[in-house]
What does this fold into?
Amino acid sequence: MKVCKTIAWENEKVILLDQTKLPLEESYIVCDDYYAVAEAIRKMVVRGAPAIGVAAAMGIALGALSTKAGAYDDFKQQIEKLCQEFAQTRPTAVNLFWAIERMKNLVIAHSDKSVEELKTLLRKEALKISEEDIKVNRQIGQMGKELIKDGYTVLTHCNAGALATAGYGTALGVIRAACEEGKKVSVLACETRPFLQGARLTSWELKESGIATTVITDSTAGYAMQKKHISAVLTGADCICLNGDVANKIGTYSLAVLAKEHRIPFYVAAPLSSINLNFEKGEAVLIEERNEREVTHIEGRRIVPEGVKVWNPAFDITPSKYISAIITEKGIVKRPYKSNLRKLALNII
Ligand code: MRU
It folds into this structure.
């Protein structure tokens, strides 16, 4: 099964598959400074919470390599500045902040090391975060595949696949794992206006992997649930709160409400690094609002009359009461989410 490479570190540069160009063009951008990586995250050249985390870690490592700081305190200050810069790129993706903390804490924990040694450590840590992400996604796939039975049609939203991670994917990783076991699974991909992650990216990567996929407009989802025998809805997450509320791509909430009405299970697949135990419930999550041009224009052409107001939140919150289970690398979490997520995230099961 072909799986695409989203992010790579090569010769002290960060290479990113340009997701703004897919599926028409498979091209890569080469970032030789941290600023280019931060800009690529902002412009969604690289997107998806885990991939954003990996890209930011590599961006910080890249920035660290070029600092002129000679002494520890100066170096630490430079790293903190870099971290602040990356923290402002995509505010909802919790993996971004998780990865930033890992990089920052590494510097704090090694105050005895020389600046050159710290640079090497940061580069190693960024690569480790990337490798771990692929491993974790495969584990999520193994945990979740039992929920996806032979003959299932799974509806998914946005792109929670190899493109949204360092590889393999979370929600799409679960589907991959079920297919790798020989199950026949087909996917209904919501197009996901306005950035069209479903139409452009999920369909592209599933086609590459030979998984049967049908793209629908977002507004077809309810009708599809009535008519198409959807077996399950499966999405990723940008942030999971302690009570099980999930922030994910705008439109996820509508799908969850529809799924409940049609008695279709609604599953979320995400790594433990997507859980923010400090967020008691969904209200705590900062929802990114993106430029109105994403809505007003298609392929550079205006489709909304000049002067008309536009609101473009990139994510919404799905209350946990609509979520049948959360699939993580350590197991499938069900209600009561608060105690079960805490036990799992703190690794005391
Ligand atoms: O705006 P995006 O494309 O970064 O949004 C991505 C999503 O909403 C994904 O579902 C989520 O990040 C999980 S990706 C494994």
User: Anything to note?
Assistant: Residues 134 and 167 are 5 Å apart (CA to CA). The radius of gyration is 20 Å. The longest strand covers residues 13-17. The pocket of MRU is lined by residues 47-50, 158, 160, 164-165, 170, 197, 235-238, 248-249, 314 (CB under 6 Å).
